[in-house]
Structure formats: C-alpha cells, structure tokens
Write a structure and sequence with these properties.
YaeB-like fold; 29% strand; 4 helices
Length: 103
C-alpha cells in the first residue's frame, strides 16, 4: 500500500519522540501490504484496528498511546493519513470527518 502524507507522521514523532518507533513499524507493515479487504487488515492487526465510515481505519499504535486515522482506497492501494495524535487528542476529534489539512 502506498502511504500518503508521511510528512504528517514525521512531524508528529518530532513532537513525540517515543512515537517514532511504533509509527515506523506501522509504516513498514503498511507499505509492504497488499490489502484488498478490511478483513485482511483485521487479520493482520486484530483488536488494534477499528473501521468507521468513509473507508476510514483507526489504528492503535504504541500500546494504545497513539491513534492513527487513515482513509483507505483498496482499488488504488493507497492509505491517506487523516490524523495522528495521542489518545487524548483523538478523543477530541470525529474520526469520520477529521482531515490532515491545516486550516
């Protein structure tokens, strides 16, 4: 899968250095994956992944310290980062509408 908006991930781990390892591990897995269905993602990540509307996936990273929301396009093999944050920051957003674009 192509991971789009990696800069957003790098900027996050620059603020939270402990997040770098879990984020890099996720990127390594996602970049090598060829997921065609949500079931394949669930099989790989188990209980650390949730699915919401608008083809969005929520990944728990770093022992549930961080949350990553991505929009998936199975047809094009792409994952677009919509949000990366601490668990507390995640609690203040709507994962179905959040956007990575700065306003």
């Amino acid at each position: 899968m192509q991971v789009i908006a990696r800069r957003t991930l790098r900027e996050f781990w620059a603020r939270y250095p402990h997040a770098e390892g879990p984020i890099r591990a996720w990127v390594a897995i996602a970049a090598k994956a060829h997921w065609a269905t949500p079931a394949e993602i669930k099989q790989q990540f188990g209980g650390t992944v949730d699915f919401v509307g608008d083809n969005r996936i929520i990944f728990d990273l770093g022992g549930n310290k961080y949350r990553l929301v991505v929009h998936v396009s199975f047809m094009f093999g792409r994952l677009l980062v919509k949000f990366i944050g601490t668990h507390a920051e995640y609690d203040r957003i709507d994962p179905e509408t959040v956007s990575w674009r700065k306003k």
